[in-house]
Write a structure and sequence with these properties.
globular, 393 residues, Chromate_transpt, Chr_Tranpt_l_chain, transmembrane, 0% strand, transmembrane helix, mainly alpha, membrane
Amino acid sequence: MSGSSVKGSVAEVFLAFLKLGLTSFGGPVAHLGYFRSEFVERRRWLSENNYADLVALCQFLPGPASSQVGIAIGLSRAGYVGALAAWTAFTLPSAVALVVFAYGLNAAGSNFGGGWLHGLKVAAVAVVALAILGMARTLTPNRLRASIAVAAMTVAVLLPSAWGQIGGIVLGGIVGLAAIKAAPAVDRTVLPLPVGRRAGIVSLAVFGGLLLGLPLIASMTDSALLRLFDTFYRVSSFVFGGGHVVLPLLKAEMVPTWVNYDTFLAGYGATQAVPGPLFTFAAYLGTVIGGWSVAVVCLVGIFLPSFLLVVGFLPFWDGLRKQPAAQAALAGVNSAVVGLLLAAFYDPVWTAGITNSFDYVLGLAAFVLLFVWKAPPWLVVALCGVAGQLFIS
């Protein structure tokens, strides 16, 4: 990035995103709203059109869209170090909270309270159901795209592994490319991030090299850390559609090889109760597996593709976003994402969370609080945990 594009200090970027990392509840869509209020309306770091361009780019890329937008804003404001500062500040609060939660879970063991943990699993049912409903409205607006979702769900159910998830995504992209007619692109102003094409090519080459090379290296070594890093890097590289979509991919990779169902879903429920990106779920999983040092490895592994892809695609985005083929393929992929969430909603979310009539009532009440009363997810998670501890033995 050229020095002329750097408009602020690393410290101001860090402090701005730290405030958001401490207060941004509600998931990826809410995060994008917070970012717009902070950086377009209040601080005026970006214009409305510039911000819309960044959001469009990060929706196009796999990975956590809100974190990628944050990385891009930090990059725009204070260069590459600013991008790192934005990510660190936005991610750190929730990651620390989940590490502490995981240590408490490990320390308490069987004495921790099965009812409270089960309440978190019921909360996860309501949260994922709401995510599916919201995404289906936007991403499957017609019969063709709804059919793509069902087909992807079928692939994921019949092939209950990471390859089944990836297969569903690839299927969606192929059908979208062949059958979806993309709307004409609306031209906007040029993106405010003059990352050079050479830097973009290098970044994409590193991304592809790690994606292909890490599994080979991990298979030739006995390093558990390297295998974990490869797992989280690969999962993040194939997550389209927001933070909740990481659930089926991580479930396929982590359960039961690294953690059991109960521990996995309890952590996913706890992730809904903290601010910041949902991908910090990786910090919880790493801590459960091997402590805070493993959490760092998992966290870096799941977010590294975002850095590489944002830097890699920025120089080419203005041209790529105007190509109908790219838009059609992305529409198909996004439809497939709904199917992957539907598959995960049944197993493991529903099967582990709803086991009796009380669970059903509690889950329905949690969904009504989220959908009708617009209650914040952290409050719903906390209430489900309390209800589980009081009424579930």
